[in-house]
């Protein structure tokens, strides 16, 4: 098997899935084929192999992290320094100082990776600003980049020792909090599920509520009715995998062979994903995606609980990996041979009654705040509608006023057109009714040719002048005539 020194070299995958502290992937032993009986197992011949595909850590800078590792492990000097570097020294950043001695080609590529990452972060910041509607606000990228602690934003152009140190420490801290955050999210999920159930019951009448409660209890009992779940990492649990998954005789169980069988990438360690795969058979006893009573979100939480338990029991150096040596030591403990019973999620409620009460109070407060905001928005909407109605009314009034002025302008009295008569003959307009009498206009030509001057008296001449004035828009009725002329006009009107 691999030596202690060789084990140190096989930690690139560990860096990604656990502490993310090891930066090199070296040659490792191959996994033994499952179909071969353990008595016939031989050490596989060592031959060069490609490093296994990196596992996504779930970090938002996972791609940048993996690309940095890929190029660092290509430098021979960096690989050699790893042999003499203790795990604690790596955590404290001593390995990062060796970055000054890597090849120019690797440093140049690391510089390029950092510039790409900084540009990616700036794009994300700008996109977030656009979504929030702040297109016209100047962005202080330097201030916003401070939140990304895994790189030195003050120097966006070159990858330095400080950048590698920041990357190691940030990834370590973020992964340590990752499981904790997953548990908190699951707790919220369970409390929200219970809250929704209670709210649904409030909408039912007494008979329907009783039926719903009975159905709920029936589903709970049905989910809890499953085969015994073995303690994760115990001899019974591993033997069951050995027999059902590997197809081997449980009487021939051998811990070392079991380790080699399930170290799927052959790096000499059980990482978190490889450990979780060992619990699939146990989880299938409890959860079936086709059953109404089984929640697959709960299944993943149960898987996480099992993996954390084994890590706490077996991972002695707390590097989030289980080496072969750690695994063999664990198989000799009493807990491995005679484990306690394993309590599943239905036996361990994810939240307390007090946490549920606080959660519902928080939801109620959120609902109250949302209702208040909705009320304020509705009030603003009503006010805007009222203002719009006022504007519409003012607009109508303005249109009416304009139409009225246009109407007055069109009704303003215009001077009559000039009348061109033959000789001194003009149509006679009677002052009393301001009308032209067409019968007079239609008199025979002989009557019109009578000498006007011989017929007119001075008084009649004066009246004729008044008639001329009426044609020009001056007062035309006898009421509008000056004093002294009204009686004359009236007498003239009464002449047969």
TrEMBL record:
UniProt subcellular location: Cytoplasm; Golgi apparatus; Membrane; Secreted
Alphabetical list of PROSITE patterns matching this protein: EF_HAND_1 (PS00018), EF_HAND_2 (PS50222)
Annotated EF-hand domain residues: 250-285, 302-337
UniProt family annotation: Belongs to the nucleobindin family.
GO-annotated molecular function: calcium ion binding; DNA binding; guanyl-nucleotide exchange factor activity
Residue ranges of the region described as Disordered: 197-234, 402-496
SUPFAM superfamilies: EF-hand
Low complexity bias: start-end ranges: 448-457
Protein name (database record): Nucleobindin 2a
Ranges in a coiled coil: none
Biased composition regions of type Polar residues, renumbered to the chain: 466-479
Primary site of residence: cytoplasm
Cleavable signal peptide: 1-31
Highest taxon, organism lineage: Eukaryota
Residue spans of biased composition, Basic and acidic residues class: 197-220, 403-421
Gene Ontology CC: one annotated term: extracellular exosome
Membrane topology: Peripheral membrane protein
Species: Seriola lalandi dorsalis
Keyword tRNA processing: no
Keywords annotated in UniProt: Calcium, Cytoplasm, DNA-binding, Golgi apparatus, Guanine-nucleotide releasing factor, Membrane, Metal-binding, Phosphoprotein, Repeat, Secreted, Signal
A Pfam family the protein falls into: NUCB1_N
